[in-house]
Amino acid sequence: MPKTTHIATRIAELRAQLDDANYRYHVLDDPAIPDADYDRMLRELDELEAAHPELITADSPTQRVGAVPTGSFAQVRHAIPMLSLGNAFSDEEVAVFVRKIEERLGRDALAFSVEPKLDGLAISLRYEDGRFVQGATRGDGATGEDVTANLRTIKAIPLQLRGKDWPRVLEVRGEVYMPLAAFKAYNERALVEGGKVLANPRNGAAGSLRQLDPRMTAQRPLAFYAYGIGLVEGVELPETHSQTLGRLRQWGFPVSGESDVVEGLQGLLDYYRAIGDKRDRLPFDIDGVVYKLDDYEGQAEMGFVSRAPRWAIAHKFPAQEQMTVVESIEVNVGRTGAVTPWVLMQPVQVGGVTVTRATLHNADQVARLDVRNGDTVIIRRAGDVIPEVVRVVVEKRPAGTRPWSMPSHCPVCGSELVREEGEAVWRCSGELTCAAQRKEAIGHFASRRAMDIEGLGERFIESLSDLGYVQSVADLYKLTLDDLLEMKRRADERDDTTPETVKSGKVATRWAENLLEAIDHSRNTTLERFLYALGIQHVGESTAKALATWFGDLELIRHLPWPLFKRVPDVGGEVARSIGHFLDQAGNQQVIDDLLARGVTITDTHPPTPKLRDGLNLATLLVDLEIPKVTRVRAEQLASAFPSVQALLDAPKHNFVSAGLPADTAQALADWLEDETQAGQLVAGGDALARLDAITPAAAEVAQGPLDGQTAVLTGTLSALSRDEAKAKLEALGAKVSGSVSKKTSFVVAGEAAGSKLDKAQELGVEIWDEEKLLSFLAGHEP
Q1: Residue in 117, 155, 545, 727 annotated catalytic
Q2: Is 117 part of the annotated catalytic residue set?
Q3: Most CB contacts within 10 A, which of 233, 359, 497, 764?
Q4: Last residue of a domain, one of 652, 686, 702
Q5: For the BRCT domain, which residue ranges apply (predicted)?
């Protein structure tokens, strides 16, 4: 076979596979191949066509994107006008619509094709001999704009019809829209990258189709549903609209899975309510449903009035957007400490409900919208979702308003509000003392992998907190039997669920005794569990274990300056700052004091690992503290001139210059030291250096294990112990247990039915342990 023939065959195969993948994804909602395989095939096709441009065809998947901007849109005259629909806003208006058809046609039991009314942009697609040749917007109904190049970028629109027996000319009418999940993801990415944020899915779809550069349209997550036809030449279509939709689906067009056929007025109203009930769960925006007389003969007899058909109508849902005035901007602290700004506004009816509050999501959203007290705003409410502010009507803004800014401290507990770099959400750092976070903090503290207080479930946590028995996690350790029984009685009375045994005076106490026993049992715990139980943002089990392993002592950890936490492997600046913010809050430190005073004991305190001391001296401490203008070179000059932290604190500024610092650096250091908080961090760092200097050789041996510095991966099922137990034993011997295999993996433990991780290990030549070798190793290294 000649080489060119072989390449042409491969190109045809790739096109067929890609077209089939698009059809299955967009029409059948049944993806056949992973995205990575689709991308690989598309890339191969693109490379083959680039090498053989004579084999490129207009309907190739590669031709969806790449045309240059035209500079303007040509006008397209619709062969059959794209008419608007009349609207119904009540059941009565729908009843009038049905009655008029019944009277004109002289029959009842009418069948209607019904479908959601997508909130997108109506378009017309023209196909000649099965090939897409032109696409246009609705425009004024008679004339639209030629947006063919942009429509070609939408994968849901077939460039070549599937199947057979197509009309010679076929015009398909439908809606281009932006799926809600894709709209949200696009805006989130735009916020991160500093791009333009879309106002709403409908505007996003309309604006995307009117981009003069099709390459811009290709970057927007657009989709398409067909809902009807225009001009048809060369074939006879079915007798009903619903059958035509089925034919369109066979030819490769996506049709809404919510489309249906119902009978009579009651069928229409039942459908309207069913779609209304699931409206908020649909993956796209709708503003109503559309009813169409299903049979074409009846449609022709009904005809048209003005610019709308008599045989179809849109039954609209209540308006979801309204205008109102902002009275104030407040913040709410959630169960996890996330701080959400919201507006108190003049009451307004939205979606059939009177609302006075709307969310602003986060500080970035407030800044983007520039919402201020006194502003007139557009708010949106979708079903049961909390209303949100979508736009400010700037032209109605009162004079003298000022931009809003996030408060610096929590309105509930007074702790500092913090936002990590790159994050949109502000959080209250008073995790253990903030009343808004109390239930979440207690639930986490008592969880199995934390303090493991068996029996302290969500219902008891709610009652203990709501009824005032527990103000912080430390209060769990002062509960008495009388407290629990009284709490249970009050909770049952509040919920009107008082058992007969309580009403008759026979109070069951075993549950309370068991709970007190579980609380008492939790008093003896490990440092790893204790740190995890505190609920510090970003400190999960593995980070808690690393902190416990490297520092070994709660008293050392709780008084360290935050930069020194970066000395622990896998703890970066974001996590280190989070730990520091938590420990900087006096309330959190007080709760730790209370826990220790009420008998909570760390059973595995040990000296810090010698690795922590390696490379840590006064110079590196100064660099870690991120003092302005103090580079590593300047830090080493200071360390050479001053023997200790205290000597540095006591030195006058001119001594810094004598040590070799430029005048501006010496001034920056002096200014930094004048801040009591900053100076306190330096003192804490000095204390840590002294503590680390005291490590003895014996302590060094204790702090290291036989697997120190090695990385293990577990895969498959082990028969003698659980995956968690195996992980804990390996970590106790110094190993880091990872979830993925790489060149840095030291060994892989493979149990029964080991999968892709074992394959990857064999491919990379990583050492493989079976369960027998693991158990033998563990037995030989028992404490």
Answers
A1: 117
A2: yes
A3: 359
A4: 702
A5: 702-783
For 573-683, strand residue ranges (E) read: 601-602
Q: Is the pLDDT of residue 506 over 60?
A: no
DSSP state of 111: E
Annotated binding residue 687: no
For the stretch 192-248, pLDDT in tens is 777 777 767 887 888 888 787 788 888 888 999 999 999 999 888 899 999 999 999
- Label the pairing between strands 711-715 and 747-750: parallel
d(CA 724, CA 387): 43
For residue 651, the SS3 value is: coil
Count of domains in the chain?
5
Consult the annotation and say whether 162 binds a ligand: no
| Long-range contacts from 36-41, C-beta under 8 angstroms, 24+ separation | 41/14, 41/17
Q: Residue 384's pLDDT is what? A: 52
CB 588 within 8 A of CB 430: yes
Q: Which CATH number goes with the domain that contains 736?
A: 3.40.50.10190
Residue 541 has pLDDT above 60, yes or no: yes
Which residues, at least 6 apart from 118, have a Cβ–Cβ distance to it below 8 Å?
175, 177, 225, 256, 284, 285, 286
**Position 78 in a domain:** no
- Cα–Cα dist 733/201, whole Å: 54
207 with 92, same domain: the answer is yes
Does residue 334 share a domain with residue 294?
Answer: no
Strand order in the sheet with 121-128: 131-137, 121-128, 169-177, 223-233
pLDDT confidence tier of residue 504, bands split at 50, 70 and 90: very low
Give the separation between CA 25 and CA 534, rounded to whole angstroms.
46
Q: pLDDT of 714-752, one tens digit each? A: 988 888 888 878 887 887 787 888 888 888 899 999 988
Is residue 532 assigned to a domain? yes
The answer to whether residues 184 and 300 belong to one domain is: yes
| pLDDT at site 25 | 54
Among candidate residues 316, 350, 385, the one where a domain is terminated: 316
Shared domain for 336 and 210, answered yes or no, is no
**Domain with 200 in it:** 86-316
DSSP-derived letter for residue 449 is T
Q: Any binding-site annotation on 475?
A: no
Q: Is residue 679 part of an annotated ligand binding site?
A: no
Segment 277-326, tens digit of pLDDT:
888 889 998 889 999 999 999 999 999 876 689 999 999 887 677 889 99
Q: Report CA 176 to chain centroid distance, whole Å.
A: 25
**Residue whose token pair is 């203008």:** 629
Whether pTM > 0.85 for this model: the answer is no
